[in-house]
Design brief:
This protein has a two-stranded antiparallel ribbon. It is mostly helical. The protein has 6 helices and 2 strands, in the order ααααββαα. Helix 3 packs across helix 4.
Length: 184
Amino acid sequence: MTDVEATTLRPAPVADSPQVTYWYGDDPSDRRQRGKAVLEALRIYRAAEVAMRRRTRDSMSMGENELLVLRYLLRDSTRRVRPGELSRYLGLSTASTTALLDRLERSGHVTRAANPDDRRSIFIQVTPRAHTEVRQTLGDMHERMLAAVIDMTPDESAAVVAFLKRMSDAVDGVAAEHPTVGSP
């Protein structure tokens, strides 16, 4: 049993009840209850996604950053990506990025190609093996996810997309507004 299977996939009740949810307190107002139910459902989804990512990393014998590099490169396999772009994307030093790329190259997931316009730089390319492995590992999950949303109405889709954008903005804004302890 995974850590997510132990949790029932139900949001907190919307109707007034004496039940207190884990993070969001116990306010009887309808608006707050609906908000709590949405945030609780999102929390449960995020836990399921984290567990899925862990299983994927384990099945592919990769760390989080290796998987992130493959996903980044697979978004557009025709795009020319330099190691520095990956360093910025991952927030890693150039040395750490080089070590990560060395591992991915040894495992046959990426190749380094000389930049024909500048011999001092290289491009990182995903291999056909990486395409195949990612599709085999994640294909079924992506089909189930698509099946879960394919029948949404345009209004439902727009509402979900707008909600996720607002949540992304709210979460991304936290680090910008509240620097970590000890930072200048």
